[in-house]
Amino acid sequence: MNHTVIPEGYRDNLSLYETQKAIGLLKRLFEDKLGGALHLRRVSAPLFVDAATGLNDDLNGVERPVSFDIPATGGNAQVVHSLAKWKRMALYRYDFFPGHGLYTDMNAIRRDEALDNLHSVYVDQWDWEKVITREERNAEYLKKTVRAIVDAICSTQETLCAVFPQLSFVKPVDREISFITTQELEDLYPALSPKERENAYLREHRTTFLMQIGGKLHSGIPHDGRAPDYDDWTLNGDILFWNDVLGQAFEVSSMGIRVDEAAMDRQLHIAGCDHRRELPFHKMLLEGKLPLTIGGGIGQSRLCMLLLGKAHIGQVQASVWDAETRSACEKVGVVLL
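Above: the chain sequence. Below: its structure as tokens.
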């Protein structure tokens, strides 16, 4: 069910043209800061991949990829859900070495997405991936990387506000990060749903990295779904901010240290996905041929929403919306691109 709610009294402080200028500046600033902080090089990325390679991201395992046949190759292609596995293969093919990585624009179509203030059928994010050593496969290295990303976001916001004084109403992102695991969060709020737990915690801790997503908690239910073949569920997480405009926890990035051979073996079994072991990507990883990596996706439209004080994702990206969404926005003067 689609559900759009514009907060009472919401007013957009940027005109349509100012919004477009601010989006362009924000993206240029953040790309440069992210690339510099994590030692990443920009590369080109595919819009679709061969379905037989196993490179597409399966998300929660229920979303249907947009698929089509290619007569010239005799095969079938899928529009990417994300580039989680493609990036790691690219690092292998391009011969990157530890301490360096890549980032790219990822554009995807998620046909089964429910539409609301935060979700669209169209997905745009910075996908990044970096080669690490086996000694760096630990929580401290993960936290260090999270701090670098949050610092890049805060620095981007400072420059934006200097260029666009109209954004003074947007509260600064808190540089101080609270790190908490999904099990610790469940222990704090056992009676709440996962999203309610996030909201309760983020009210007090405005910038949070929620760790260890994918495995079952003591309740027997995972906090959220994660595919078994890219993130190590013990070394991953989401970067969350408190969104003052919407009054809720707001995910900007899903990321983590990626599976090694042991984690892949374990998680494929837990998820009931042992049939994937013979796919080219999975086979190479289980044989130890792919580099150890850390990586993630950072939502471009999500970050624009947060730093520009927007109430709906359609204010910062062009997509297709249902009649209910268009009507709700029209009534309060919110312009969808």
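The two ends are 22 Å apart (CA to CA).
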